[in-house]
């Protein structure tokens, strides 16, 4: 009985230690990467479509539109300020043009109040009016206030991909990942996602929100369909999604590809972690040697610990001891390494 227990400990103990160093999708990663890779077009825009008004009964407003068209924004502002001050009833077009003129001069703080006023004075404002307000709020990083404006834009133009991306990013920027993901899912279901970056961000959000299996499936299909470029980052995302989903066999192929494409050895360390979970100790050791050979490891202590874990699982305690001793030099890995070193010491003492 004791022999069976000791034999089982060779398998279970490494997996327990691995939990301390397994890759996880942190809150920061999905919040950051979708912006960097998942919605680059949305981050740069949309720039508001400045649509000049139709002729109105008000000569001053028409003249201001002409001045804006001629890029004489300062004179347009002066004319509109005077008109608005002396007009008993608010004229939405005047407020919109005033917002446009300030926006064109780069003064978002002065552009926002008249732009918002214009869009609230009419029941069904033009798309360009809504875009102007949403863009100004985004520039101020007032994402919570921007959300209803992007929602109104989607109501007017549900087929506009950028509005969905902007809405999702706004939700994400206020920490509402649930609605950020729901928005991306709706866009995906509607067939609006089309770019490499869209699918990477959708996968990131799925992993972040605890559905890594779906994140892996979505990303794998996008890679197979050649929508997402099969590069190191994509393979790392895919392998990590499979890993977090507990599909360790599925994680091996993308992690192998990522490791081969990488300039550093970190990819091989991630691959080794998948092999450890699969209890393929020989493959884990081979991957770790490849990673160490590639060099530039961001966390040598992790690699040393994994090597010690794999060797321990193979019953090569003396070899494992050397690697674990090196891992124990790193504070982050010391507790796990010392637990193995203690186990080795206990086994050695019992064998005497």
Give your account of this protein's structure.
This protein is an all-alpha fold. Among the domains are: 55-140, Tetratricopeptide repeat domain (Serine Threonine Protein Phosphatase 5, Tetratricopeptide repeat, Alpha Horseshoe), CATH 1.25.40.10; 262-351, Alpha Horseshoe (Serine Threonine Protein Phosphatase 5, Tetratricopeptide repeat), CATH 1.25.40. 74% of the residues lie in helices and 0% in strands. Helix 2 packs antiparallel against helix 12 and helix 14 packs antiparallel against helix 15 (248-261). Residues 1-41 have low confidence and may be disordered.
Give keywords.
Serine Threonine Protein Phosphatase 5, Tetratricopeptide repeat; 352 residues; 20 helices
What fraction of residues sit in β-strands?
A: under 5%
Question: Percent of residues in helical segments?
Answer: over 70%
Kindly report how far apart the N and C termini lie. Answer: 20 Å
Structural class, judged by helices and strands?
Answer: mainly alpha
- Poorly predicted runs: 1-41
Identify the overall geometry: elongated
Can you tell me the CATH architecture of the domain at 262-351?
Alpha Horseshoe
């Amino acid at each position: 009985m004791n022999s069976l227990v000791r034999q089982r400990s060779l398998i279970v103990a490494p997996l327990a230690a691995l939990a301390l160093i397994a890759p996880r999708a942190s809150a920061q990663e999905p919040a950051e990467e979708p912006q960097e890779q998942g919605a680059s077009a949305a981050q740069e825009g949309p720039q508001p479509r400045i649509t000049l008004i139709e002729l109105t009964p008000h000569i001053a407003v028409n003249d201001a539109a002409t001045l804006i068209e001629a890029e004489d924004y300062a004179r347009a502002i002066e004319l509109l300020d005077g008109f608005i001050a002396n007009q008993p009833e608010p004229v939405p077009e005047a407020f919109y043009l005033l917002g446009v003129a300030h926006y064109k001069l780069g003064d978002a703080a002065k552009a926002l109040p008249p732009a918002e006023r214009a869009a609230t004075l009419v029941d069904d404002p033009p798309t360009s009016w809504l875009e102007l307000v949403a863009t100004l709020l985004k520039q101020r990083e007032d994402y919570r206030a921007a959300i209803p404006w992007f929602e109104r834009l989607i109501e007017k133009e549900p087929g506009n991909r950028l509005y969905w991306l902007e809405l999702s990013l706004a939700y994400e920027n206020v920490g509402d990942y649930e609605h950020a993901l729901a928005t991306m899912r709706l866009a995906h279901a509607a067939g609006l996602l089309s770019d490499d970056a869209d699918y990477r961000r959708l996968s990131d959000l799925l992993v972040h929100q605890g559905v890594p299996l779906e994140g892996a499936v979505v990303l794998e299909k996008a890679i197979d369909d050649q929508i997402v470029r099969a590069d190191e980052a994509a393979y790392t995302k895919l392998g990590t999604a499979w890993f977090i989903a507990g599909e360790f066999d599925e994680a091996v192929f993308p992690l192998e590809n990522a490791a081969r494409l990488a300039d550093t050895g970190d990819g091989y360390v991630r691959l080794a972690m998948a092999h450890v979970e699969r209890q393929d100790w020989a493959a884990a050791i081979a991957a770790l040697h490849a990673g160490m050979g590639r060099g530039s490891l961001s966390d040598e202590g992790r690699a040393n610990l994994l090597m010690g874990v794999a060797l321990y699982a193979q019953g090569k305690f003396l070899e494992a001891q050397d690697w674990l001793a090196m891992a124990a030099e790193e504070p982050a890995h010391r507790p796990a390494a010392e637990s193995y070193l203690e186990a080795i010491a206990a086994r050695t003492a019992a064998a005497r």
